[in-house]
What does this fold into?
Amino acid sequence: MKKMNLVVLAALGMTVLTGSVLADEATGDEALNRANKVVERREAVMGLMGWSAGPMVGMIKEQTPYDAGAFTRQARRMAALSEMVDDLFKADVRQFDLHTEAKPELWDEYDDFAKLAQDLVDSSKSLVVASEAGDLDVARKAFTAVADDCKACHDKYKEDDH
It folds into this structure.
């Protein structure tokens, strides 16, 4: 657990720096490279969140046996990653011609986005607590709240996959 916390703290430190890397004196290719790194970090964390959710979804849908320990481990990962979401999106990279799934409105409505990101943090923390009870029904309800928070943000600020 301590090792995971150190990794998460290091990643969080990188995400905090992400918001400021575009604000300094970088221009041209250097600025573009920094913007690319910002998008790569966003995609990596979002991908890890999906990866963390996968085993929990399998257990919730009863496609795989319920393992309370594994469920809690994945919930803790998701909660740690959710803490990074707000920082990951602080840097507005719209001025660069980059592929990103974030809709431009995200930065025009950043306060709303930040609230949705905080909702995810809160529901993810609640998921950890619920998962520690070791009861699939309790965990399922808490996971649904996390999924609803993900969906609320994606519906508003993520481009369709089509």
